Amino acid sequence: LAQTSSVPRHAQAVPASDAVAMAAAGECRLCPGLYGMCIQLLLFLASMSVLVLKKKREERREGELARSWAVFVLDSSKQLVGAGWLHLSNLFFSTALASLGDADPCVWYWVNIMFDTTLGVLVNFLLLKYVLTDLMECITNRHGWFVNGDYKDPSGRCVPVKYFAQLCLWLLCVTFMKLIMVLLMSILRPQLLSVGAAFLDAWPKACRTAQTRLLLVMVVTPGVMNAMQFWMQDTFLKHTIGQRMRSSDRTVSLEEGSRSEPSISASPQVVSGSAALSPRRLTFGQESRSELCPRARQ
């Protein structure tokens, strides 16, 4: 990742000593070399620990009905890939928003995190459940591929294409959510800038260094807020018991429908016998059935 500096364009020609003084005074860069990579590694470990904790809690509460570790890894990998994509998007949009004025990119990164982990979770849920899932099924005509957490066929074999279809769906959902959040942040830019700056300036003066601000913005805040975000998103990204029952019932009904024959296809001997006994009653029954069910005539 390229380093992002919070120094405005008109101040980029200042001497190196002045730039060092500005950084020492609390100017924040989102990716300052090795230190920034270590910060992001800590963030990844914190996110993984939250998901593992939720899996352990699920095993204690649900017992044998809990997800297997293989399914849990697939469910969690969708969140981690989405979080990585969202992290890169936040770096880009934080720098872009900061370039519009004298704002600090770290302030805008903090605002992005707060939006993504609160209102963004609700937007992800609504997009996934009510918009994009049905839309993708209609476009691809692949019903059952986009059922969250279901990676197997009716025989119980794992279908990798189902996982990649759900992963692409989730990335699409996260992308649309990010665009909506950026639009809201652009509209509320002055108010959000004041809130973000107030949060970072609320700490003691001795703690207002660039490293401390980076730690607050990329570890402390995401560590707390992403824990809440991952916990809530996992509830609608996994395959619930009710979904498994509905999908199995639908599979059984389709199999029974393909094996069963129409009820009107009776044996020729029975029909001929019935016609010999009461032809008028048989004719009346056929006319009544064709009137009530027009499709039977076809």
How do you describe this structure in short?
With 298 residues, the chain is mainly alpha-helical. The protein is 73% helix and 0% strand.
Give an account of the 3D structure.
The protein has twelve helices and no strands. The chain is mainly α. Helix content is 73%, strand content 0%.
Which terms would index this structure?
single chain; 298 residues; mainly alpha; 12 helices; 73% helix; globular; disordered N terminus
Chain-averaged pLDDT = 75
**Secondary structure category:** mainly alpha
How far is the N terminus from the C terminus?
A: 65 Å
The major sheet is characterized as: none
Number of strands: 0
Count of discrete alpha- or pi-helical segments spanning 4 or more residues: 12
Poorly predicted spans: 1-26, 261-298
Instruction: Indicate the radius of gyration in whole angstroms.
Output: 29 Å
Helix content: over 70%
Globally, the shape reads globular
Strand content is under 5%
Order of helices and strands: HHHHHHHHHHHH
Secondary structure layout:
Blueprint: H1 16-24, H2 33-62, H3 69-98, H4 105-116, H5 119-140, H6 160-187, H7 189-201, H8 210-237, H9 241-259, H10 268-277, H11 279-292, H12 294-297
Helix pairs in contact: 2-3, 2-8, 3-4, 3-6, 4-6, 4-7, 4-8, 5-6, 10-11
